[in-house]
């Protein structure tokens, strides 16, 4: 049997002739129980999991659990006007959010509605919030770097475009700062950023948005906010909204960076939802599918192959630990899903090492291949040096008569730590990072007193900008150490005119 | 139609047994009487649930329901033994639903602002039977002023909404996009 085009078009013609927009028979149900943003519905035969349903007052709901005689629905929006006995009808659609470039620069809620008071969003495009992740053949190895502008990350745990790098640490260790600085550094990098704030204070989010605005980062950033006062369903949906918006850029051959701040709050919201839906609790009272909750989200981050446009979506999920315990349920889950983690430690933070990155526990499983050659060359031994310094440091506390080589190593280690420190919202370009680390590993900083290192660094950058722009340009454009004699000359000439503070 | 799971189980079992013996219609008639006795507030249920009467329960049921079919009496005894007296009305409803499904009759309601004439009701039944996938419909007319105008047919959690209210809702929906609600 073959199908001929004429037959089909004749059929459609006939259909057009007799087509009339008529009310259809719809499946309905009745609310038998409601509260806490959840409604139990009787009826709604044939409804699908994840389908949108509409309540009598126009509020939408998302079908979450299908049981023998009832359907559990999470209410998106106000649940206060929903009463027992209300009628609920199927819509036959799954949840979608508006996407596209007109969202850039806006602050939206997880349903894609603007909350920044700048008027409606003019976009016709929308994407389903749940979408299949790209498969094996659709992907490509990660090879382009994502410059965070933080020396400690770009040198020690480099991130590539399309990677999923977890940022983990206790509260008040500067996790959000890492994300904000990373977003600030994406200016003119052909990157769209999506900052998903989950369960944060609205005042904090407001301050973050202000930081973006002040540094001109809002021009390429979308902020999705599900504040602490938002109902659990919205906090649960927020990351999926963010990823849907990022996918739109990725599948159009562009680059996107999605920051989920933070996923432990989303997991807690999902736990609340699941318990109210009477799903059995498991470890730490999380439901059984909390791993899938995060894996299906993070798996959607990818570097697409060239046939699909070569776009990428980088994911920076955050997880908050309690007292540095990374063996809790959510941290272990997300660590195993992601391609590496950046571990922020509070004792480092309070001893003044900021960003408080622990180089021993932080890894990047794929980012190395995305690092520029120049950076790879200068930062290659940095991690090992730091590790051996930490080891020596603990030994050196016992005795004072150390041999020269050990002293030298300790000296270099202290300076390395000092160089990796960085101020708030001051991203450093890749070429400058290369220059300062080059100066460090070649021993130019060994004679500089420890307290002068940071001043040396800032003045050095200014000096380079003024006196040796071609050296910086060479590194930026080729990504390699093409002209080492010039670099050495630049460093030593600056070193000569650098005035010590004593 | 909010029959509990237990009520549905009893109804299904009774229906299966009745069908095997071929007198499901007789049981249906008997059940209507039972439903009245058992529907809340029911003195009989209170009496049966009284701990003092525990020993007498089965005797009372047997003696009062002498003329009823034996399957039905046995089912009631089982239900009373299981402390499921309150599920009896639900069981009856589900039994009626099952037998009507087998007969391919759709039982439901039609809402309107004013009472429909028998002629109108017949027309609606005739027109919608096929659309709902039944041979025949048995609709009960009910007044609902909230629908403003037109009518609304509800059969087993499926609805055909030809009311003015639904049309206005449709208009509103066209003005307000999904993500703004």
Q: How many structural domains in the coordinates of chain A?
A: 3
**The CATH top-level class label of the largest domain in chain A:** Alpha Beta
Give the overall form of chain A.
Answer: elongated
If classified by CATH, what would the architecture of the largest domain in chain A be?
Answer: 3-Layer(aba) Sandwich
Catalytic activity (chain A): ATP + H2O + 4 H(+)(in) = ADP + phosphate + 5 H(+)(out)
Domain ATP synthase alpha subunit C-terminal (chain A): 371-493
GO molecular function (chain A): ADP binding; ATP binding; proton-transporting ATP synthase activity, rotational mechanism
GO cellular component, one term (chain A): plasma membrane
Write a concise synopsis of the structure shown:
The complex is a heterodimer of chains A (502) and B (181). Chain A is an alpha/beta fold and 502 residues long. Chain A has helices spanning 5-18, 151-156, 175-184, 202-214, 232-251, 263-276, 290-298, 329-337, 346-350, 373-379, 382-396, 404-420, 430-441, 453-467, 469-478, 484-497; strands spanning 25-35, 38-43, 51-55, 60-66, 71-76, 87-94, 96-98, 107-108, 126-128, 145-146, 159-160, 166-169, 191-198, 221-226, 255-261, 312-320, 340-344, 363-364.
Structure characterization notes:
The complex is a heterodimer of chains A (502) and B (181). In chain A, 46% of the residues are buried. By secondary structure, chain A is of the alpha/beta class. Chain A has three domains: 26-94, Elongation Factor Tu (Ef-tu), domain 3 (Beta Barrel); 98-371, P-loop containing nucleotide triphosphate hydrolases (Rossmann fold, 3-Layer(aba) Sandwich), CATH 3.40.50; 375-497, Up-down Bundle (Lysin), CATH 1.20.150.20. The mean pLDDT of chain A is 91. Chain A starts with a helix and ends in a 5-residue tail after the last helix. Chain A is elongated and about 90 Å long. In chain A, a hairpin with a 4-residue loop joins strand 3 and strand 4. An eight-stranded mixed β-sheet of chain A has the order 8-14-13-15-16-12-17-18, sandwiched between helices. Chain A has a six-stranded antiparallel barrel with strand order 1-2-5-4-3-6. In chain A, strands 7-9 form a two-stranded antiparallel ribbon. Chain A has helices at 5-18, 151-156, 175-184, 202-214, 232-251, 263-276, 290-298, 329-337, 346-350, 373-379, 382-396, 404-420, 430-441, 453-467, 469-478, 484-497, and strands spanning 25-35, 38-43, 51-55, 60-66, 71-76, 87-94, 96-98, 107-108, 126-128, 145-146, 159-160, 166-169, 191-198, 221-226, 255-261, 312-320, 340-344, 363-364. Chain B has a four-stranded mixed β-sheet with strand order 2-1-3-4. In chain B, helix 4 (57-64) runs antiparallel to helix 5 (70-81). Chain B is elongated, with a radius of gyration of 21 Å. Chain B starts with a helix and ends in a 6-residue tail after the last helix. In chain B, 26% of the residues are buried. The mean pLDDT of chain B is 86. The interface between A and B is medium-sized, with 30 and 24 residues. Strand 1 (25-35) of chain A pairs antiparallel with strand 4 of chain B.
């Amino acid at each position: 049997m073959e199908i001929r085009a004429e037959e089909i078009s004749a059929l459609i013609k006939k259909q057009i002739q007799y087509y009339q927009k008529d009310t259809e028979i719809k499946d309905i149900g009745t609310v038998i129980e409601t509260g806490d943003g959840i409604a139990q519905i009787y009826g709604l035969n044939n409804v699908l999991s994840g389908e949108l349903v509409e309540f009598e007052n126009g509020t939408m709901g998302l079908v979450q659990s299908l049981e023998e005689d009832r359907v559990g629905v999470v209410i998106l929006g106000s649940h206060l006007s929903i009463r027992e006995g209300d009628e609920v009808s199927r819509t036959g659609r799954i949840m979608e959010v508006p996407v596209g470039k007109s969202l850039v620069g806006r602050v939206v809620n997880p349903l894609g509605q603007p909350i920044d008071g700048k008027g409606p969003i003019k976009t016709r495009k929308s994407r389903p919030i749940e979408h299949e992740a790209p498969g094996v053949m659709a992907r490509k190895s990660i090879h382009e770097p994502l410059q965070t502008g933080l020396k400690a990350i770009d040198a020690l745990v480099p991130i590539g475009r399309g990677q999923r790098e977890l940022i983990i640490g206790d509260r008040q260790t500067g996790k959000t700062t890492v994300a904000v600085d990373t977003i600030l550094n994406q200016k003119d990098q052909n990157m769209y950023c999506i900052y998903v704030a989950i369960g944060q204070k609205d005042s904090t989010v407001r301050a973050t948005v202000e930081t973006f605005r002040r540094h001109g980062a809002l021009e390429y950033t979308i902020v999705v906010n599900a504040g602490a006062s938002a109902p659990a369903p919205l906090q649960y949906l927020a990351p999926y909204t963010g990823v849907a918006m990022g996918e739109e850029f990725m599948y159009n051959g562009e680059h996107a960076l999605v920051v989920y701040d933070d996923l432990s709050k989303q997991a807690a919201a999902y736990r609340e939802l699941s318990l109210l839906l009477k799903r059995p609790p498991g470890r730490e009272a999380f439901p059984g599918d909390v791993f899938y909750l995060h894996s299906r989200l993070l798996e959607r981050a990818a570097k697409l192959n060239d046939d699909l446009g070569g776009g990428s979506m980088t994911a920076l999920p955050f997880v908050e630990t309690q007292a540095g315990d990374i063996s809790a349920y959510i941290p272990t889950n997300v660590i195993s899903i992601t391609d590496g983690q950046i571990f922020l430690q509070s004792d480092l933070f309070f001893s003044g090492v900021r960003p408080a990155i622990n180089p021993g526990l932080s890894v990047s499983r794929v980012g190395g291949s995305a690092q520029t050659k120049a950076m790879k060359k200068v930062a290659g031994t940095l991690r090992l040096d730091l590790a051996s310094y930490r080891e020596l440091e603990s030994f050196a506390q016992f005795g004072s008569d150390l041999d020269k080589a050990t002293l030298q190593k300790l000296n270099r280690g202290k300076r390395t730590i000092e160089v990796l420190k960085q101020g708030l919202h001051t991203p450093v370009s890749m070429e400058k990072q290369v220059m300062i680390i080059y100066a460090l590993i070649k021993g130019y900083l060994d004679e500089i007193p420890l307290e002068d290192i940071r001043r040396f660094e800032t003045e050095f950058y200014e000096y380079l900008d003024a006196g040796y722009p071609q050296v910086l340009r060479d590194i930026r454009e080729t990504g390699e150490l093409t002209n080492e004699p010039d670099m050495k000359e630049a460093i030593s000439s600056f070193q000569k005119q650098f005035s010590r503070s004593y | 139609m909010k029959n509990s799971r237990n009520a549905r189980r009893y109804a299904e079992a009774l229906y299966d047994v009745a069908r095997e013996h071929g007198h499901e219609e007789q049981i249906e008639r008997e059940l209507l009487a039972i439903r009245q006795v058992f529907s809340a507030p029911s003195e009989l249920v209170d009496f049966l649930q009284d701990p003092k009467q525990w020993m007498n329960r089965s005797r009372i049921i047997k003696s009062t329901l002498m003329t009823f079919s034996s399957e039905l009496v046995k089912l009631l005894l089982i239900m009373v033994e299981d402390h499921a007296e309150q599920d009896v009305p639900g069981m009856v409803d589900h039994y009626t639903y099952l037998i009507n499904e087998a007969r391919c009759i759709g039982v439901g309601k039609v809402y309107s602002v004013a009472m429909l004439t028998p002629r109108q009701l017949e027309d609606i039944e005739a027109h919608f039977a096929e659309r709902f996938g039944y041979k025949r419909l048995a609709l009960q007319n009910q007044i609902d002023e909230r629908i403003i105008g037109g009518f609304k047919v509800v059969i087993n959690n499926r609805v055909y909404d030809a009311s003015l209210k639904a049309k206005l809702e449709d208009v509103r929906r066209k003005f307000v996009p999904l993500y703004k609600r």
